[in-house]
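tool_call: predict_structure(chain=1)
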Amino acid sequence: MNHQRNTAPFDTIKHHLSLTPLAKVLHPMRVIKSADEIAKIKAAVKASTDGHKAVMRACKPGINEAELDHYASDITRSYPVNGKFTTEQKAIYSLVLSALDAAITRVKPGASWNSLHETCMEVMAKGLLELGLLNGNIDEIMKNETYKGFTVHKTGHWLGMDVHDVVPITMNKNSGEDLSQVWYLP
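tool_result:
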């Protein structure tokens, strides 16, 4: 195709092959996981967990996980390098943990991914308001999404062949299937 673009005169009709992005074909195949894929995902999660525990044991002031033998993970967690939270750090850590716990209590068949994220954001917003880090009333904070200054990304993401695997919501618009449900891997 590039050869034709570069060699055919500007004013002639060009005949290009139609290219279809593979994502439209591959993404639907990657959404539903086989038993073998689930086992591999669980093994990857265990490796990430073990890695984080090793980083926590080896961590000291002045370094971060990316500097520890060039290994990092996609698990977002915060902990004090010296092993002790300040009062402020403990308040934020406890708030994030409360938000996560609140969402986990809502995990069940049929629970949507977004409802779990919204639960986390509601708990976070209320907690940030109580800590004096946000001003106003909770309804305004939620409506204006003021809390987003403290939450840099969503609560989680899909796992699979990629760390941030394909998002089924983008493919279900025309399929009629509701693939926006949470699949919980115990």
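agent: The longest helix spans residues 35-58. Proceeding to next step.
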